[in-house]
Amino acid sequence: MATRSTNKTREAILKSARDAFASKSYAEVSMEDIAEFAKVKKPLIYYYFPSKEELFKEAWNEAFHKLEDKVLGVREEDGKYVKKVKEILRAYIDFLRNDRKSLRLIEREKTRFYSEKSSNWKYMKNKYDIFVQQVADVISPEAGASSSEYARAITDIVGSSSLLPEGQMSPETLELIIIKGIHS
Q1: What is the 3-class SS of 46-94, one letter each residue?
Q2: What SS3 state is found at 36?
């Protein structure tokens, strides 16, 4: 019985952290904010997560797994290059439409990957780089050496659009920009 309650408390803290980190930058979110959102006392957060950085990593990792499952779950071994790109792009855009908070959480602190030296930030950078490489691997048979550049462009364009105010750029416009860029 205590385990179920423990898991619920941990999940409530994690959900509050995901929401907080999706709406504000890492630096702007305090453990007090998360405790208030989760309706728990701050020391309880430290019981489950030893630091703010560790909590961010856990929230980021959960959001990232959702993204991987959605985008890389569309793999089709035999298909035309543009069809593959469109499938990945549509999955990525669907993720943007349906789970904008998770994508914001992933994208908001991406620049910290390259400046922070702790193992948590290196871990997140490595996971993200592997994801981009997996996208590149899907499109590589037809794109060749350019596949890494295309994959980085796709992930950067769609990802950064999650940080724009809703409605500023439609998913259809994103798809059009990327597909036209590939054809040129």
Answers
A1: HHHCCCHHHHHHHHHHHHHHHHHHHHHCCCCCCCCHHHHHHHHHHHHHH
A2: helix
> Are 159 and 106 a contacting pair, CB within 8 Å?
yes
Contact present, 127 and 99 (Cβ < 8 Å): no
CB 49 within 8 A of CB 13: yes
pTM of the shown model: 0.75
Angstrom distance (rounded) from CA 48 to CA 56: 12
Q: Which of 14-23, 63-72, 170-179 has the lowest mean pLDDT?
A: 170-179
pLDDT digits (tens, 9 = 90+) for 122-160: 999 999 999 888 888 877 666 566 778 888 888 888 888
Neighbours of 80 (CB within 10 A): 10
Residue linked to tokens 């439609």: 170
**Is residue 39 classed exposed, middle or buried when 0-12, 13-18 and 19+ CB atoms within 10 A define those classes?**
exposed
Check if the beta carbon of residue 88 is closer than 8 Å to that of residue 71: yes
